[in-house]
Amino acid sequence: MTPTKLAAAIIGCVLAASASLADVVTTRANVSVEQALANLTAAAEAADATIFAVIDHQKGAESIGVELRPTVKVIFGHPQFSTPAIAASQLMGLLLPLEMLIWEDADGVVYLSVPEIDHEAKKLGLDHAHPSVEIIEDALAMMVAAAAG
């Protein structure tokens, strides 16, 4: 590969990564990773939502001898919110159920990262005008606020 082609490939990768990060909303939490997870769990239970999975990336990293700051992925949802969206555009099944990444940076600050629903839904064929998009956005915002403390 020529240096020019290599540079073009690197620039393309950087631009693709930047575009992907634009589709993520990150909020600073006022609590620890553990407390944010507990807050999210309580909010999900109060909303009669289901927590489908809690993936502890730090624990997984430890299992192979890699150090990783606290990083937890939570998959959650409620069919009342997700089913109409998936019925309108089955590709929404790629976005739903919802996901939240709860993570701690190198300075010990905790963040909550979630997909930017409106933009992601549009890419999957569901316009913002569809009532499900606003319902999902509102539900996710409520869960982020609860988890953040």
TrEMBL record:
Coiled coil: none annotated. InterPro entries: DUF302 (IPR005180), TT1751-like_sf (IPR035923). It holds the Pfam family DUF302. Keywords: Signal. Residues 55-114 form the DUF302 domain. Residues 1-22 form the signal peptide. The keyword Chaperone does not apply. It comes from the Bacteria. This is DUF302 domain-containing protein. It comes from Octadecabacter antarcticus 307.
